[in-house]
Design goal:
With 116 residues, the protein is mostly helical. The protein has 5 helices and 2 strands, in the order ββααααα.
Length: 116
């Protein structure tokens, strides 16, 4: 699970299930964290609070908070509720999560090669 004080150089990218090549740096940015960051990004782009997303999605605000911090492993129906509430297709949230994780992975690889 990602820790708020970690920088991209401290992070290991764990690819989507079934992938065979995780990189090896110090921390872990997993799928839950990447997805949570994607939800937070869309929410803040809309200018919404967690309370507003909670009301729009029918999810508890503490659940939304945990999800955005990568501490929840939401079911597919929950993901669909979030996407619907945010007004974006579910695949857009997944795409943002993948791009975020990939960017961290590329940054970590770049940092590791410049330090080695």
């Amino acid at each position: 699970m990602a820790h708020p004080s970690l920088t991209p150089a401290d992070v290991t990218y764990i690819p989507w299930p079934g992938s065979h090549q995780p990189s090896t740096v110090r921390g872990v940015l997993d799928l839950r964290s990447s997805f949570g960051l994607a939800v937070r990004s869309v929410r803040t782009d809309l200018g919404w609070s967690q309370e507003r997303l909670s009301a729009e999605s029918g999810l508890d605000r503490t659940y939304v908070s945990g999800l955005e911090r990568g501490r929840r492993n939401p079911a597919l129906q929950t993901l669909a509720r979030l996407a619907d509430a945010l007004g974006v297709p579910l695949h857009e949230l997944v795409k943002r999560a993948e791009e975020s994780a990939r960017a961290v992975h590329l940054q970590s690889d770049s940092d590791a090669s410049s330090n080695g």
